[in-house]
Amino acid sequence: MERLPIVVATGEAVREVPPEQAVVSVRTASKGRSRESVLERLTQRSAAIGAVLDQFATAIERRETAGLHIVPELKRRGEEVVAYHGSIATDVIVTDFAVLGDLLLRLGREELTSVHGPWWRMRPDSRAGADVRQAAVADALEKAGEYAAAVGARIDRLVEITDSLHDDGGFRGGAMRAMAASAAGDGLTLELEPELQTVQATVKVTVTITEPVLPTA
Question: Residue 165 region, left (φ>0) first, then alpha (ψ -120 to 50), else beta?
């Protein structure tokens, strides 16, 4: 059986889409002479932060404790503990960006609390990833068809599709694109501009083509 010629083509697709999630890290700290007192204060402050997050429950997809640290401070040139430093962090995933600014302001008002973020991102299983991969396959097949047509042939059948995976699933994003705080009556308003996420895919297709019709000398 005669073996048909093979064509290998690479297809690419890139799209810019709005982010689907915003990640915020909230950290509260405490210092005291005893480990117990530090833990007690951290528990109280963590509960206060939790109460704020409860008020925005419909906007929050998930929240989880990211780490609890208690570190002793030693007296110089000795082993005597003079104080304990403690911190507890919470990671929050927000999906309703309309109230994100208010949430950040409320968290920022809590005592000895630092707020980091937001970091914009797509869901790992985002439909945007599937759409851009399909577009990359279409691009690769179109190129393969052009290569075949150049030698008087056409695509016969598909042999293989190889996905050139990215470590981040093809999503490219970043931190806060723009943030502005302004006075509004007796309080503050925080306007956030979500950063567009770049979704990209690269695929390689292998196809067989019909017998080429090459020009004769």
Answer: beta
